[in-house]
Amino acid sequence: MRRGSRWFTALMISPTLLALALVVLYPLVAAARESMYVRGEGLDADGFVVEGERFVGLAHYAELVGERFVNALLNTTVFTLVTVTLETVLGVAMALVMHNVLRGRGVVRAGILIPWAVPTAISGLMWRWVFQADGVANAILGEKILWTTEGVQAKLAVIIADTWKTAPFVGLLVLAGLQIIPTMVYEAAKVDGASAWQTFWRITLPLVKPALVVAVLFRILDALAMFDLPFVMIGRGKLSVETLSALVWDEATQLRYGSAAAYGMVLIAYVAVVVFVFVRLLGADLLADTRSRKRTA
Amino acid sequence: MKKTLLLACALTLATTTACGAGEEEASADGRGPITIVDTQSHEAATRKVIDAWNAAHPDQKVTLDIQPKDADSQRQRLINNAQTKSDAMDVIMLDAVWTAEFAANRWVDPVAAGTFKADEFLAPTLATATYRGNLYAMPWLTGTGLLYYRGDLVDKAPTTWAEMKETCAEVLPEHKEMSCYAGLLDKYEGLTVSFAEAVQSAGGTVADESGVPHLDTDAAKAGLTFLVDGLKSGMIPKEGITFKEDEVKNALQSGKVLFARSWASLYGTANAADSPVAGKVEVAPIPGLDGPGSGTLGGANLAISAFSKRKETAKDFLTFFTSPEQMKIWATVNSTPVARTALYDDQELVKQYPYLPSLKQGIVAAKPRPVAVKYGDVTAAIQNAVYPALSGEVAVEQALSGLQQQLSGLLKQ
Question: What is the chain B residue with the closest CA to A253?
Fold first, then answer.
């Protein structure tokens, strides 16, 4: 590449880089700085808050061994593992239904996608009514479970609601993947006498994998940052469903911006590690996929 | 590149005009148009008072800024405004439990002594606007818990917990689907209110005026035991632990409880024409261990932002807003109880809100929730200690001694 054109390239992408530096890099650096300071601590003799900030180094990070943080970390992890697993299985099943349905295709697809289209805060409210003491859930089960009280049942309620809401998202992305599988591959399988099960494992799944991996990756990112559903459905301050995002929010609300920033940094690091491991394990060569597709096109 | 430049220009332009808007001719005498920040549920009433002011003061017009409905977001918005030292808010509505935080951070100005007659206001409402002996807001709205009961089934309102239980024992056998009592017991601010009320109604206090917690007392134990045993024995229905205002209202309206504790606003709803129990719901002060109980104070007051540039107008407007005439007009539009003593004996208002005499009795006996600059931590500590006791996971003594220890640390100033 000529020297001049490289400069030109740099010039052309510089607005993007500038924008990224402003909206991504700056907040990150500012948060990292904030996480090492404490502000407005203590009162003077007249009861006024002492102004100014004080450098405390990594003191906020020492709170990471605290009961509340560990609880939030565990909740976040449990929610992510369980919901993403359930959503993947159900999502793939939904995609297969949507793909193979012969009659009333539009109705089936719309029906499956509706939960995804409902804003999370609204579905949180809806599920709160389902799970209240005299709600639909208890009426169907014939039990009197107090879902919104602290305990395992609150976690379960969140998992059910989240799966209901986001399995269609996985379904949608997988459906897109299914639609680009050429029918002749299936015809060849039929000719070779493959069973339906074999066809699914040997043909459908490998060919739909690139789309599935992207869907699962998105879901993991989303689930690790879960906030609104437990908040609206079960209530703030219920420790059995407090996620990392909720903890960060709560600390910031109590004006402890230092520890809020510290927890936020940890959340970012956690998300980065999980995604890195995921991409490595599944060999989700996201870029290579687009590259190869461009070549065949 | 050209586009970015344009965009940058547009952005700077937008921000400068946005900043500029607040600064228009900052008048030297502290007068000019001002903004009052209030919450959605007060809108109609507050607007009426503002219109009256604006008609008389065309050069010092008041604009109403309506806050989001949820209290957390309201507080957050006020704090954001204060931390940027913006003069966009001149008069702000301060919830009773925010007074200490806003005063200690110097976000609101103290109210000068002698600007109003303190003895015309209910004493407890002044307490909710006071921090370290100084008044930081004009007393405006108040409120405390009331005992709602089914007048068609109960002859006389109970004054003690024991009486309430007796009445239930008489009435409930004929009404199998009913439970005795419901209160605000879900894990949220209402639980702090209910706990403080139970402790006070047994003769104790969560924390005294100098910030010392008193949860190692018999009264505190009796108070919490009332709630815990109530849930255990079924006096309070089992699902009562998930009740907030709405659930309590539903329980009362659908005939699931005989007695219910809620705020003054429930009266209108429960006796409205579309309510299944319309005309059957009556009100009394809340009961206690050995006599009438003691509630916690809710309510909100009006403060002047420390960063206002038009404080003279703001002061005049506050005097106008909290004057007997305007407060009465406000009260006829909105059912939230106001702070002026005389209005509780006002014939027209009593006709409109028959619960006012009971309420006045309740407010005089009520106490503020613990005063703390970091109130959020205090209420979280109370909820985290009381809730497991209600669900039976932690024994009453253990919950109280843990809370005593925690509050000692949090309230030490």
Answer: B76
- Interchain pair B242, A148: CB under 8 A: yes
Cβ–Cβ pairs < 8 A, chains A and B: 66
Interface test with B, best of A49, A67, A238 (most B CBs within 10 A): A49
Minimal Cα–Cα distance from B277 to chain A, Å? 20
Contacts of B171 (CB under 8 A, 6+ apart): B153, B154, B178, B258
Give the whole-number percent of chain B exceeding pLDDT 70. 93
The pLDDT of residue A173:
93
Check whether residue B254 and residue B395 sit in a common domain. yes
Give B197→chain A minimum CA distance, Å.
21
Residue A281 above 90 pLDDT? no
Q: Are residues B199 and B235 in the same domain?
A: yes
Flag whether pLDDT at B4 surpasses 50. Answer: no
Check if B373 contacts A (Cβ < 8 Å). Answer: yes
Chain B, nearest residue to A45 by Cα: B413
With contact defined as beta carbons under 8 Å apart, do A212 and A177 qualify? yes
What pLDDT, on a 0 to 100 scale, did the predictor assign at position B19?
39
B273 touches chain A (CB under 8 A): no
B33, B76: one domain: yes
* Structural domain count of chain B: 2
Interface-testing mutation among B195, B243, B373, B406, with chain A (most A C-beta atoms within 10 A): B373
- Which helix (H) or strand (E) segment holds residue B262: the answer is strand B257-262
Q: How far is B180 from chain A (nearest CA, A)?
A: 17
Contact residues, chain A, for B3 at CB < 8 Å: 15
Domain containing residue B266: CATH number: 3.40.190.10
Domain A71-121+147-296: CATH architecture, name and number where available: Orthogonal Bundle (1.10)
Which pLDDT band, with edges at 50, 70 and 90, does A102 fall under?
A: confident
Residue A159 has pLDDT above 80, yes or no: yes
pLDDT band at A30 (very low <50, low <70, confident <90, very high): very high
Q: Which of A53, A125, A254 should one mutate to test binding to chain B, selecting the residue with the greatest count of B CBs within 10 A?
A: A254
Q: How far is B84 from chain A (nearest CA, A)?
A: 14
Judgement on whether residues B209 and B259 belong to the same structural domain of the protein: yes
Locate the domains of chain A by residue range: 18-55, 71-121+147-296
Q: What is the pLDDT of residue A236?
A: 87
B228 falls within a domain: yes
Same-domain check for residues B202 and B267: yes
* Confidence check on the interface: ipTM exceeds 0.90, yes or no: no
In a domain, B84, yes or no: yes
Q: What is the mean pLDDT of residues A96-110?
A: 88
CB B141 within 8 A of CB B339: yes
Same domain, yes or no: B265 and B400: yes
**Which of B72, B239, B256 to probe by mutation at the A interface, max A CB count within 10 Å?**
B239
Q: Domain limits at B266?
A: 146-296+372-411
Domain assignment present for residue B36? The answer is yes
Tell me the chain A residues in contact with residue B1 when contact means C-beta distances shorter than 8 Å: 11, 14-15
**Contact B396/B225 with Cβ under 8 angstroms?**
yes
**Strand pairing partners for B340?**
B121
For chain A, say whether B33 makes contact (Cβ under 8 Å).
Answer: no
Query: Do B304 and B292 belong together in one domain?
Result: no
B359 and B282 in contact (C-beta within 8 Å)?
A: no
Let me know if residue B56 belongs to a domain: yes
Please report the pLDDT score of residue B307 as a whole number: 96
Query: What is the CA angle A229-A233-A238, rounded to 5?
Result: 95
Do B248 and B285 fall into the same domain?
Answer: yes
| Model pLDDT for residues B13-37, shown as the tens digit of each residue | 444 444 334 444 555 788 999 999 9
Is the Cβ pair A133, B387 closer than 8 Å?
no
